[in-house]
């Protein structure tokens, strides 16, 4: 049975942009969504940047997206904590994307007896901050991470990211974190709530089988895998699950809107 798709979720890197440049068809896809009034969100596990930062970065590549149409793992984490423990406190390791989201959700950022230690992505992980996180978790703070990605990209090559630093903290504390970002379908469900969409009529577009596609399947969405990012067509059969549809790129989906 062919689903009627009324709302769209899409990954950013590898789907809309690659190394700061728009992937052909991406600007047209987003413009068509906006022109036809389709609810949509652009999702990213990157917790470094605020939605405003990412809007500017996309605009520089030629893709015009309103700030409110961007949903980061930092925003999803702040929403989760606000739902779980409104007005709580956190010791946060991360950049402006995370600290701004927590602050705007009503959280107090503190090093003194916080409810949570929240680990996000940063290019300057501090041994002092990691030590502080270990001691706070051992003292009773709950351990939350924005996303499980073990590495992040840089012009020089891969960098240790949230998942790798989380593993170090877990080894020191024997406490496993709760990860909010992909592949946890929690991030997709919070995105659906944000645009008041239903899983039965929403599609997810991603370039990774192990995050975008599996989380989309678990959230009950129609999943499109594009081949402009991490996953190649020869890799698909190695997974025990399959996307609903495989297409070459985002350009092939403009006519589906």
TrEMBL record:
Cofactor(s) needed by this chain: Mg(2+)
Alphabetized InterPro entries for the sequence: HAD-like_sf, HAD-SF_hydro_IIA, HAD_sf
Binding site for Mg(2+): 11, 13, 207
A Pfam family: Hydrolase_like
Any one of the GO CC terms: cytoplasm
GO MF, any single term: metal ion binding
Annotated residues for binding of substrate: 182
Record's cofactor remark: Divalent metal ions. Mg(2+) is the most effective.
Keywords: Carbohydrate metabolism, Hydrolase, Magnesium, Metal-binding
Active site per UniProt: 11, 13
Domain of life: Bacteria
Family annotation (NCBIfam families): HAD-SF-IIA (TIGR01460)
Family: Belongs to the HAD-like hydrolase superfamily.
Protein name: HAD family hydrolase
Organism, scientific name: Sanguibacter suaedae
């Amino acid at each position: 049975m062919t689903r009627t798709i009324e709302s769209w979720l899409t990954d950013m890197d590898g789907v809309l942009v690659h190394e700061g440049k728009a992937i052909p068809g991406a600007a047209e896809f987003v413009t068509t969504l906006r022109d036809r009034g389709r609810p949509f969100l652009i999702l990213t596990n990157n917790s470094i940047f605020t939605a405003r930062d990412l809007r500017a970065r996309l605009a520089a590549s030629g893709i015009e997206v309103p700030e409110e149409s961007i949903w980061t793992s930092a925003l999803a984490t702040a929403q989760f904590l606000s739902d779980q423990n409104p007005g709580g406190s956190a010791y946060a390791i991360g950049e402006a994307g995370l600290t701004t989201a927590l602050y705007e959700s009503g959280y107090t950022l503190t090093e003194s007896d916080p409810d949570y230690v929240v680990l996000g992505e940063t290019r300057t992980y501090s041994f002092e901050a990691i030590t502080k996180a270990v001691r706070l978790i051992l003292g009773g703070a709950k351990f939350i991470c924005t996303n499980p990605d073990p590495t992040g990209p840089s012009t020089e090559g891969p960098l240790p990211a949230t998942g790798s630093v989380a593993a170090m903290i877990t080894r020191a504390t024997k406490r496993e974190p709760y990860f909010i970002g992909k592949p946890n379908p929690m991030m997709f469900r919070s995105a659906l709530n944000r645009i008041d969409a239903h899983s039965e009529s929403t599609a997810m577009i991603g370039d990774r089988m192990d995050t975008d596609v599996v989380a989309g399947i678990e959230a009950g969405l129609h999943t499109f895998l594009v081949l402009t990012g991490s996953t190649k067509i020869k890799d698909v059969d190695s997974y025990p699950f399959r996307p609903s549809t495989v297409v070459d790129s985002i350009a092939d989906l403009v006519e589906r809107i």
